[in-house]
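I'll show a sample.
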Amino acid sequence: MLRRRRPLLRAAAVGGGAYIAGKHMANKANEQAAYEAQQDQRISDLEAQQGPQDYQQQGYQQQGYQQQGYQQPPPQYQQPPPQAPPAQGPSMIDQLNQLNDLRTQGALTDEEFAAAKAKLLGS
């Protein structure tokens, strides 16, 4: 009869330990949830007291994140600047073709053509 009680005692000890550990973890999770809810309530109360303001402009939001140890929020993206209007006048290819025509006609020497091409290409 003594042999029969030992497995029961061992099972009761293991089961009781698991019950206590599970209960402890559940209590910790409940405390954490209550703390987060309290923090959220405090933040919303502070925001209600301050009223609608531009926090980004006054720097409150950035300081709050740094003091709390949180990461910075993602940067706000701006619209890219509008593209420059197309240039008026002949395109670069047209100008290069004109220079080449002048060189083939003999109006420009090879050195003058190279200098004009470099000036046109900006190098």
Observations:
- The mean pLDDT is 76.
